[in-house]
Write a structure and sequence with these properties.
- The chain is mainly α.
- It contains ten helices and three strands, in the order H-H-H-H-H-H-H-E-H-H-E-E-H.
- A hairpin with a 5-residue loop joins strand 2 and strand 3.
- Helix 3 packs parallel to helix 5.
- The radius of gyration is 23 Å and the shape is globular.
Length: 229
């Protein structure tokens, strides 16, 4: 154009200079950000949705919720015909639906079918195994929240084989759920079974204790963030 005619820069130099003027956030791949965000939302939200669907008490601390994922899932549920995933968003939404059934194998396959993952550095060595591990753990939590109350006891060895997670990791995860009061059960002395207890309403003291524990955790997190600065 007119500017180029009176400039001593070549077209290539001008293009490179314009690229350097572009804000850093505009260099990011929006599809990849969306994919990672939806995957994280799915891993966090699906077990909590399963848990809160079983709760009668409305005074629970608020669950994590991604409106973005929820809207996409509701749109898919309204569809009369459901075909194969045609893009990254559809793949993650279908993965989330498989996860809500505790079907970790389908969830992993659908989630990682998105080609955009391959643009991440170290995807095969680091990211892929991490995503598989997190989906398995999320599926295990979903399974226990959805179906746990149907059993008097559940074999840790069975859960380990079904979700392909080491027995020790299954035991640690279950211990955490019990300590957080999201799973009503105990692990037997031989550490072979989870003994499920019938769901009972929490007493007022227990409710207040859980709310207090959440508030203390928030303060601890803020203190750690402050200490980093």
């Amino acid at each position: 154009g007119m500017t180029q005619r009176f400039s001593d820069k070549s077209v290539e130099q001008d293009r490179n200079e314009r690229q350097r003027q572009l804000p850093a956030h505009m260099h990011l791949n929006v599809e990849l950000i969306d994919c990672v965000f939806l995957t994280c939302s799915m891993i966090l939200e699906i077990p909590q949705t399963a848990l809160f669907s079983k709760k009668i008490n409305s005074n629970e601390p608020k669950m994590y919720q991604s409106r973005h994922l929820r809207r996409l899932m509701e749109a898919v549920e309204r569809n009369v015909f459901e075909g194969p995933a045609e893009n990254t968003r559809e793949a993650i939404v279908m993965s989330a639906r498989a996860l809500s059934r505790a079907d970790w194998e389908s969830s992993v396959e659908l989630c990682l079918s998105a080609k955009i993952w391959e643009s991440l550095p170290n995807f095969s060595e680091v990211i892929r195994p991490m995503v598989i591990k997190l989906i398995k753990e999320s599926a295990l939590c979903t399974y226990l929240y959805c179906f746990g109350t149907s059993f008097e006891s559940i074999s840790i060895e069975y859960l380990s084989a079904y979700f392909e997670i080491q027995s020790e990791s299954v035991e640690n995860l279950i211990s955490r759920l019990i300590s957080e009061a999201t799973l009503n059960g105990t692990i037997d002395d031989q550490k072979k079974f989870i003994i499920m207890k019938p769901n009972a309403e929490l007493s007022k003291i227990q409710e207040m204790g859980l709310i207090l524990a959440d508030k203390i955790q928030v303060i601890i997190d803020r203190n750690e963030e402050t200490a980093e600065f």
